[in-house]
Amino acid sequence: MSIDTDTARKVAKLARIRVEEAGLPALARELSGILTFMEQLNEVDVAGIEPMVSVTPMRLKRRDDVVTDGGIQDEVLKNAPLAREGFFAVPKVVE
Amino acid sequence: MTANSLTIAAARDALRGGEISAVDLTMACLTAIDAGDGLNAFVHKTPEIALEQARAADARLQTGDAPALCGIPLGIKDLFCTKGVPSQAASNILRGFRPEYESTVTSRLFGAGAVMLGKLNMDEFAMGSSNETSCYGNAVNPWRREGSNVALTPGGSSGGSASAVAADLCLGATGTDTGGSIRQPAAFTGITGIKPTYGRVSRWGIVAFASSLDQAGPMAKSVRDAAILLQGMAGHDPKDSTSAEIAVPDFEAALTGDIRGKVIGIPREYRMDGMPAEIEALWQKGIAMMRDAGAEIRDISLPYTKYALPAYYVIAPAEASSNLARYDGVRYGHRARLAQGDGITEMYEKTRAEGFGKEVQRRVMIGTYVLSAGFYDAYYNRARKVRALIKRDFELAFAAGVDAILTPATPSAAFGLGEMADADPVAMYLNDVFTVTVNLAGLPGIAVPVGLDGQGLPLGLQLIGRPWDEAGLLNHAYVLERAAGFVAKAEKWW
User: Fold this and answer.
1) Could you tell me the pLDDT band of residue A92, with boundaries at 50, 70 and 90?
2) Which pTM value belongs to this model?
3) Is the Cβ pair B353, A18 closer than 8 Å?
4) Is A68 on the interface with B (CB under 8 A)?
5) Would the CA dihedral through B326, B327, B328, B331 be positive or negative?
6) Of B84, B171, B76, B90, which Cα lies nearest the Cα of B119?
7) Which segments of B414-492 does DSSP mark as H helices, in order?
């Protein structure tokens, strides 16, 4: 599978990574190269094989649905690039 | 010999015997670290924390209440969150981030009395095999080719850890291993590194790369030191739902040096086309050592080996694209400066373009692609099925009585920094060819230095163990270490 410039643009958009228009052809080439390497997987007969979910057969543990932590608003916000009045602050979102 | 070049086992005895204080030992390391800036291994030094911990360790040693790692100075990979100390995963997107909490592994180590000297260089988000994707610049291997001053890679992603341990800047270090990131740098620098069974060590507080593959482990100067450090890191943690509720045995006590009657598997698929003759010769040497120690050598087949790398390079980027979605410029780390009229989408896109390096961007986008509608089955699900087959290969070998598997650790000795700059990304990925199967199958694997190549650079072999049998694996490694008698050190140039 070869990735064209349009697909590269779409992937960058989905990944929320800005790529300038001029950088798209090179990106498409790199991604195509990696995907070509992955094509080897098509040689494998995987009929009847379940996709692996976890390396050790284990059920994810459950715990009681109770609050065990909290009341640490200052710590939570401490590393925020922008925080105001106890909230994370982001550019205005208007739909 | 100065105190910083002691093994952990020797330092433990010297501390308990009162021959040296934890403060003096820590000072010796801090001095070595400052003199070792040319290696670019330590990227955030924490001398104040180190000395405070060392003083506390001395107090405990004096009262006879000394835990296992009391006063042992360690380096910590930058991937571990350490409270109040920069923890950046070698990425610009986490510049300025100082966690308000401590990772489970580091809190266990400090609880056992260990001293933190600082944070160690690595590939950005642990994505790389040469430490060249780091936002801090390259870490440098203390080893050089004979008669050459070309700077070599210490390997990656735990390159700073490997360089620091090999150069005696610390007594041991933490590493993490998603596809070979402990074992490949250990082999490139002539030290020992073990990746434990998936679930043996808590991942809580370690910056996530590929959650089904990531596992932390020790990097050390000897197998015994690796056993001591692993003891301090391992164990169930309720904060990591994949951490196993399985008792942790006494790893050091398992080092009996007796492997008579054990079966060592030699997988024929690990004999790669174009493999250097020196690697093949080293492997044969290792096989002879295990045989001489009384083990039975058995040829085995792991038929799906050749599909491990392509499966890995679907699964790891897929998980990474999901894990790294959290770096959005909102809660921590870098946020791009925005232009007039930019909205939240522009903020995400600019922040991630500025904050992530090239290799990380590449992997996030590959992961995004293989998970996107229409390709999920063709790539991601297929890779997970191949992964199941790779795991089954090992299960069949172990079921047939194999106790451990011996392979080369890397396809070459350390290469020059910059040498792979023009190669395509896939060429770099081939570094993990012998190690990545172990992560896919969730098994424990250890790299042990066994010899030098024709240019005087260290080469290592890898042993792969049964799930949860780190104790047996370490004992096999101990036998290999003793037979190889690897004592060479890099000649000091830094």
Assistant:
1) confident
2) 0.97
3) yes
4) no
5) positive
6) B76
7) 425-429, 436-441, 470-484
